[in-house]
Amino acid sequence: MLQQVLALIVIIFFLLRLLKQKNHKQINGSEFSLWLIFWLLALGAIIFIKQIDTLVAWLGFSGTAINILVYLTMLALIYQVFSMRLTIAKINKNISELNQALTLKK
Amino acid sequence: MKIVCVIPAYNEAQNIRLVISKVKSFVDEIIIVDDASSDDTFKLANLDNVTAVRHIINRGQGAALRTGTELALERGADIIIHFDADDQFQAEDIPEMLEPLINGKADAVLGSRFLSKKSNLPKIKRNLIMPLARLSNLLLFNIRLSDPQSGFRALSRSSASKLKIENDGMAHCSEIIYQLFKNKERVVEVPIKVIYHEYGQKLSGGFKIIKDLLIQKLIN
Predict the structure, then answer these.
(1) Of B30, B111, B114, B131, whose Cβ has the fewest other Cβ atoms within 10 Å?
(2) pLDDT by residue (tens digit) across B65-112?
């Protein structure tokens, strides 16, 4: 129970921080939506941890809900890193094209 | 027939004028692409009668070659040679590289350090890095060449026009080879001699090339 309360405090802290960033226009709409969904899902997962435990057991997994959530989070983070690498590669490509255009224009 | 030599250069103040003096008697025009060197490469290149352009920011050899090749095409090159600025390639090999193109027997000529002429390749490069590079060319692109990573090449105008060098770094070597075969160009390997003054690309660089090629496949 204490762990759940602590986790909820952390999530609420990040949600408030997210709202503050949005109000100060430090993040754009799509970035705000992405993180809002992420933290709301995390909030839901903590509140309904018992039900998720039951669901996980019903699905036949041997681990607890927390284990499954950690695995899913890791998968999400790996995907995020991969996606960021691709984005960086595309930005790099654009910078090179710009660099070349400027060089040949002079 | 206008022969243009493209030389990408990054911090080659020590060698650039020497390389220009060696190459100029074999070609009609030299294009130096200074890849935002922090030394006097660009200033020194401009002392000679060459076309020198400068990248605003450092983007790597592949990017410099792309800029130089485009400029060479703009300036009406019939044959474009890619040559390094580190004084390791031998300018005397240029006529042999040009011959198959001038005679119409090839669309692209790749210099090979593993044919008849002897290059002083470091042992690890010869026995480990190059076989691995050959293997990756075979696995990724199904291409067999004696030299999988030579930067010394000569291209006809038509084959150079079709090239789209996407890799800014050292992976451009494999990329160019792949595109030449994909475009069904007649590719010929010619023996060249390379004199190594320093070690050059390490094994870690080889892995970076493979990584860059894979990322490029994903973003395209």
Answers:
(1) B131
(2) 999 999 999 999 999 999 999 999 999 999 999 999 999 999 999 999
Which residue ranges of chain B lie beneath pLDDT 50? Answer: none
Sequence-separated (6 or more) residues with CB below 8 Å from residue A44: none
From A30's Cα to the closest Cα of chain B, the distance in A is: 22
Cβ B171 vs Cβ B213: under 8 Å = yes
Chain B residues at the A interface, defined by Cβ less than 8 Å, are 33, 53-57, 59, 63, 66-67, 70-71, 74, 166, 168, 215-216, 218-219
Computed from CA positions of residues A81, A83, A85, A87, in that sequence, does the dihedral angle turn out positive or negative? negative
CA angle, B13 then B19 then B22, to 5°: 150
Pick from B38, B39, B42: nearest CA to B7: B42
**pTM of the full predicted structure?**
0.75
Contact by Cβ (8 Å): B19, B87: yes
Q: Which residues pair with B108 in a beta bridge?
A: B155, B187
DSSP string covering A51-103: HHHHHHHHHT-SS-HHHHHHHHHHHHHHHHHHHHHHHHHHHHHHHHHHHHHHH
The number of angstroms, rounded, from the C-alpha of B204 to the middle of its chain's C-alpha atoms is: 20
